[in-house]
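Data availability excerpt. The first of two example chains:
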Amino acid sequence: MYKTVKRILDFSAALIAVLLIWPFFLVIMLIIAVDSKGPVFFVQKRVKKDKKLFNIYKFRTMRTDTPKDLATDLLENPQFFITGVGRFLRKYSLDELPQLFNILRGDMAVVGPRPALFNQYDLIEERDKVGANSVRPGLTGWAQINGRDELTSKQKAAFDGEYVKRMSFGFDLKCCLLSVKRVFAHEGVKL
C-alpha cells in the first residue's frame, strides 16, 4: 500500500520543489556556464527499479574531458577534474537537484537506494541479494545517511536492504531530515 502512496508523495514533493526553486536552477545554470566550457547538465546511465537503465540528470561539476562512465571515487585524481563551482555544488549536494525531474518522470523516488552506475556490477549484485533493486532509487537513501562515499558496495547494499524492509512514510521522513543534517555537516562526502 505505501509503495502506491509513496509514488504520489514523491511526485508531489518533486513538483512543489521544482516550482519553488526554479529561479535557483537558473542561477546555478548561469554560474556553471560562466565557470567552465561545456553543457550545464551531466547525463549518465544509471540503474533504476528492476535493474532497468535510465538517464540520470545532474548539474555538471566536472570538466568535459572527465571519464564519463567511471564513479568519481575510482578516478586516479578526481580533484583534477572538478570545476571551481563544482566543488561548491558537490559540497552542498546541489548538483543533485536536476534529479527532481527524474522523480517526476518516475525513474526515481525522493528516498531509496542511490542509483548505481550501470557498470557498478558488484553493487548491483549485492543489492540483488537484499531486494534493493526492486524499489525505485532515491535522491537520498539510508546508505547516504550512514556513510555515503565512505561505504563499500557490500555496506551500501546492507543499508539499502534495511531501507527496503523498513520502508514507510515515517522512515522516509526520517531519511529526509537526516539527509538535510548530513548535507550541511558535509558528513560522508569525499569530494
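And the second chain:
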Amino acid sequence: MEVILDVSHELRTPLSTIRGHVEGLAEGVVEPSEETWALLQAEAERMGRLVDDLRRLSQADAGQLVLSPAPISPAEVVGLAIERMLPLFEEKGVELSSMVPDKLPPVVADSSRVVQVLTNLLDNALRHTPAGGRVVVEVGGDGEAVFGVIDTGEGVASEHLPHVFERFYRAEKSRSRSEGGSGVGLAISKALVEAMGGRIWVESPGVGEGATFSFTLPISRRGS
C-alpha cells in the first residue's frame, strides 16, 4: 500500500501540470507557445522515466533483470558515464572529473548496467551539489574494484544514511521531485550492483559536508 501511495504522489504533480495546461489550451487561456509545448513534453517524459524505473525495480524484485556479464574496463565505463552527464554538469556550473588508474584490472559486469549505475549516482550528485561545486569519480580497490562518486554538495545527515537507497525516500520531505529524479534511481542502482555481485553504500561527514557513494564489482580472474 505504501508503494502505491508513493507512486500516486509522484505522478500527481506532472499529471496535474499536464491537465491544467491542456484545459487552458482548450479554453484559450494558455497560449500554444514553444514554452508550453516544452513544458508538456518535459512532464510527459518525467512520467515516462518513472514508469521505466518502476519496471526495472519490478524486474529486480522478481529476479528477472537481464544481465550480460563480461570482463570490462573500469576506465571505459567511467568515461562513458562522464561523457553522458558532462553537458548537464557544465550547464549547472559543477566541475566533473575522474581519477582512474591506467592499469586497473577488468571487472566482471554488464557494461551498460554499470554505466547506468554511474549515471544514476552522477545525476544524484549533480542535483545535490550547488554551482561552483565539484564531483569526482574514482576507482580503486584491492581484491575487488571500488567505484566512488564523491561530491562537495549538501551531504547527508547520519540518521538518513541507512535509508537513502530506499525507493522514493527523501531526506527532505518538503523537497519537490520537480527538481529532478524519479525517487527510485538509487534503489535501482542498489538492485543492479547487487545483481552483478557487488555492494553499494553511502558515506557523509554530515549536512553541508558532501557525500561519497561507493559500490564494488568483482575483478575478472581471466585478465583483460
